Amino acid sequence: MKKTILLVDDEPDVREVLRLPLSDLGYRIREAETGKQALEIFKAMQPCIVLTDIKMPGMDGIELLQKIKQENPETEVIMITGHGDTELAIRSLKNNATDFIIKPINVDALELAVRRAQGVYGKS
Questions:
Q1: Which of 18, 19, 57, 114 is least surrounded by CB atoms within 10 angstroms?
Q2: Structural domain of residue 10, as residue ranges?
Q3: How many independent structural domains does the chain possess?
């Protein structure tokens, strides 16, 4: 069975750009456009990796990270941040995010972050 990544971003174009390389790496992709929707999917599916934007309306990525870690501390969460938002990325790491990648997203950086998270996670 394919490993699942939950991809969370309020911008459909960003989700679309990320879906293809993640699928090429062999992951089944579930998508959410809000933190609330992501949390519902997370609770139902328990994906091995969550890839989430930090800045979203409503529940932001850091709040989502905290809720996911409360639910399952073993889940690897990779944060997506806009250029210049390194302070938010550091806050994410302090809340046990696995990694962060900066927009515009470089496919090699994405692959490296996901492979690193998978190595840390090491489970199906």
A1: 57
A2: 4-118
A3: 1
Could you read off the pLDDT tens digit of each residue along the chain, which spans 124 residues? Answer: 579 999 999 999 999 999 999 999 999 999 999 999 999 999 999 999 999 999 999 999 999 999 999 999 999 999 998 877 778 888 999 999 999 999 889 999 999 999 999 886 554 3
Indicate the pTM of the whole model. Answer: 0.92
Across 11-54, the runs of DSSP E, i.e. the strands, are 28-32, 49-53
Which residue from 110, 10, 109, 3 is spatially nearest to 58, judged by alpha carbons? 10
Whether 30 is in a domain gets the answer yes
- Where does the chain have alpha helices with state H? 12-24, 35-45, 61-71, 86-94, 107-121
Task: In whole angstroms, give the CA distance from residue 11 to residue 94.
Answer: 25
* Residue 95 lies inside a defined structural domain of this protein: yes
